[in-house]
Specification:
- The chain is α/β, with parallel strands linked by helices and about 475 residues long.
- Helices cover about 45% and strands about 15% of the residues.
- The chain has 22 helices and 13 strands.
- Helix 4 packs parallel to helix 6, helix 7 packs across helix 15 and helix 9 packs across helix 18.
- The longest helix has 18 residues.
């Protein structure tokens, strides 16, 4: 398995403890949650059930009865009438098992099983509190792509499951480095620039990366997967949010709005164009908890002026290129990837990648052990003052600040006299606006490298390339 070392270590540790454990595994759709759990706990699983998407309570209970019969080897007589009876039957089966080693009960896609007024969560809490937690040989694992529902109803539950979880494992998409290793494990050897082009469009989602074929360039792969007549990712978006959220239209409306914004939007800008306050708060919370949207605090840590950005590469790529070009097929991406719209998008996409690889950036700067706060800053210009924007600020505990200039280019990035003047002025405006007493460094992050000349040497105190992010 590529990556996931820390998660695997934590999960295996729970098999060695002298008490029952309760684990929640969350993460976006297609990120590999079920694969991870099955790989680590395959030999210990004594019962597993997967929720039925859009199934009602009767569907879920029948599914439970069928799965239980598979493990008990008893015929299905009739489904339990409710979850209280269902978990009573499960408890009877679990009592018949040996106590010599840990047994894993795995409930996959829990949000699909959970239906209103079903009392599923309450009865699950009762099973844990009344039986499982009092034994020493169980690991209860719950999993679901609808991370917001799991977080609200399990992790932050104020009732029977309050503070009951032993571990919360949030599975994120692969980093650039893990993506490179994953592709190599499939004998797909691409240079860093090609991997980045794929990552900007599909992110580090394992299921998406599994579709890449040996011998394909990024352009050829994206043409086949996103723009050909039977492209697998042409309609992936249609089920992505509907599989996670009730009334997904509200979530999709915010996603579509953010996908078209290069620099992200503040709360006021989103609410003016989308939905009423109450619905907005719940919907935005869902998207943040599920990892699709990230909050970027302004410099100084004040929540006022927080910038919201769409953090899912595929969703951005879908709205920017796939959706507007669904009627095109042959050679569509070859044409689009040479357009000005593509060049503008790559700048935004590479900036998003940098925000996801702060640890790698800190390592390249030699400050891995230094506490930092990550932020951004927008200053609106007026008749008196010139406005400016910094999309990545690394505020360090060693009395230093890196203000980062992120550039995605087709080759070596060159700083000329005019651009050097812009960087010098922006640095001075930042110091004056924030009144910081810290040392401020201009930091250039680019996908290739920076041409060494009199201007780069004068204004760039630090340079980071794609190699460091890899």
């Amino acid at each position: 398995m590529i990556g996931r070392e820390k998660q695997i270590e934590r999960m295996k540790y729970l098999l060695k403890t002298n008490k029952s454990e309760f684990v929640a595994v969350t993460g976006r759709r297609r990120v590999g949650k079920t694969f991870l759990i099955d790989t680590v706990y395959r030999k210990q699983i004594c019962f597993m059930i997967t929720g039925i998407q859009h199934g009602n309570m009767e569907d879920q209970l029948m599914n439970f009865a069928i799965k239980l019969s598979e493990y008990t080897k008893n015929p299905v007589l009739s489904p339990p009438k409710d979850w209280q009876e269902a978990f009573y039957q499960l408890k009877s089966y679990l009592k018949s098992l040996s106590k010599r080693s840990k047994k894993v009960i795995f409930i996959d896609e829990l949000p699909w099983i959970y239906t209103k007024r079903s009392k599923f969560i309450q009865m699950l809490a009762h099973l844990w509190n009344d039986y499982l937690s009092k034994e020493k040989h169980f690991v209860l694992v719950i999993c679901g792509s609808a991370s917001s529902l799991v977080t609200k109803n399990i992790v932050n539950d104020k009732g029977g499951l309050h503070n009951r979880l032993s571990e919360i494992i949030r599975l994120k998409p692969f980093t650039l480095s893990e993506t490179k290793m994953f592709l190599k494990s499939r004998r797909i050897n691409l240079v860093d620039q090609e991997i980045t082009k794929l990552y900007m469009a599909l992110g580090g989602v394992p299921f998406y990366l599994e579709q890449i074929r040996k011998g394909e360039s990024a352009v050829v792969a994206l043409q086949r997967l996103c723009f050909s007549a039977d492209a697998i990712f042409k309609n992936e978006y249609d089920n992505l949010y509907k599989a996670l959220f009730y009334n997904a239209e509200k979530h999709e409306a915010i996603v579509a709005l953010l996908a078209k914004s290069k620099d992200g939007l503040i709360r006021k800008q989103i609410r003016e164009k989308i939905i009423a306050k109450g619905s907005y708060n719940r919907t935005m919370e869902d998207l943040i908890l599920s990892g699709f949207v990230t909050e970027h605090l302004p410099f100084g840590g004040k929540t006022h002026g927080t910038i919201y950005r769409l953090d899912d590469e595929y969703s951005v790529f879908y709205h920017r290129f796939i959706k507007p070009n669904k009627k095109q097929s042959k050679g569509a991406w070859l044409k689009l990837s040479a357009s000005q719209a593509y060049k503008i998008w790559t700048g935004y996409a590479f900036e998003s990648i940098c925000h996801k690889h702060i640890d790698e950036i800190k390592q390249a700067l030699g400050i891995s052990g230094v506490y930092t706060e990550i932020s951004a800053l927008r200053v609106q210009g007026n008749a008196i003052e010139k406005g400016f924007q910094i999309d990545l600020i690394i505020d360090r505990n060693d009395n230093t600040i890196n203000i980062c200039e992120i550039k995605y280019y087709g080759g070596t990035f060159k700083i000329d006299k005019a651009y050097a003047k812009t960087l010098i002025e922006r640095k001075q405006m930042f110091i004056e606006k924030t009144r910081t007493k810290k040392q401020v460094f201009n930091t250039i992050i680019t996908n290739y490298d920076v041409l060494s000349n009199q201007y780069s040497l004068a204004v760039a105190e630090a340079e980071i390339t794609l190699k460091s992010l890899m």
